[in-house]
Amino acid sequence: MHRILLALTLVIFAFPAMATEAGWALLREGGHVVLLRHAYTLGTSDPPGFDIEDCSTQRNLSERGKLQARKMGALFAARGAPIEQVYSSRLCRAVQTARLAFQYEEVEEFPPLDPLPADPGAAAKARAATMDLIRSYKGWDNIVLVTDLENIMALTGQTAREGEALIIRTYDEDLRVLGRIIFN
């Protein structure tokens, strides 16, 4: 019984490391799109009175999140993952993650990566604009899209931790997750 528990523990802890290594291998190749969930924040939901233009009304990065974002950028550089362009939601936590992580790249705010509107038609339009951006990318390096969990789930049907990257590719009308990188 002890050996079974030990084996399960090793598998549980080894899987994220293997997934992360496979993700880095993809990014070193270039030509990929990365959906990156913003770094660690304070709290779990935005306070009442949320305003996309006012950071004081939003959940923001914690000190741990700021360190995590800097680590992301350092790892992209150290792992030889070339970045062509960085796009970000206008959420303060996403913009701050993008700027701290990719300080030598220009960060372009891309409103379709903002939290999805409550109106289903407007949400579909935002998703379509993001899909158009993803489909149109044909570069040699990688592009990074920094957003929130809601958008990542709407685009891929999968969840992501704060500070987790999903390497994606389009297949017909859908996105397929090719790899993940977990930034602790």
TrEMBL record:
<feature type="signal peptide">
    <location>
        <begin position="1"/>
        <end position="19"/>
    </location>
</feature>
<keyword id="KW-0732">Signal</keyword>
<dbReference type="InterPro" id="IPR029033">
    <property type="entry name" value="His_PPase_superfam"/>
</dbReference>
<protein>
    <submittedName>
        <fullName>Histidine phosphatase family protein</fullName>
    </submittedName>
</protein>
<dbReference type="InterPro" id="IPR013078">
    <property type="entry name" value="His_Pase_superF_clade-1"/>
</dbReference>
<dbReference type="Pfam" id="PF00300">
    <property type="entry name" value="His_Phos_1"/>
</dbReference>
